[in-house]
């Protein structure tokens, strides 16, 4: 579940912020509220993204190697990390 935070932040930056064209002389698709929120979302992604990546590396790579267990089962379980985000995003798009 904590992995939902950086996934949501990245999704927001790609779907809300990136499509805007505010740098042109006459912006046609510029949402100034989105521009104000961009710095918060970027900083939050820069903080939560590496933390989540470190958790994945420690839990799914370092611990199995340290306990001499099979790495394949743990890495297969790592694919379940984005599943809660994708399910919530799919449910939100239905509403």
UniProtKB/TrEMBL annotation:
Keywords from the named record: Membrane, Transmembrane, Transmembrane helix
Top-rank lineage group of the source organism: Bacteria
Keyword Membrane found: yes
Residue spans crossing the bilayer: 41-59, 71-94
Name used for this protein in its record: DUF2834 domain-containing protein
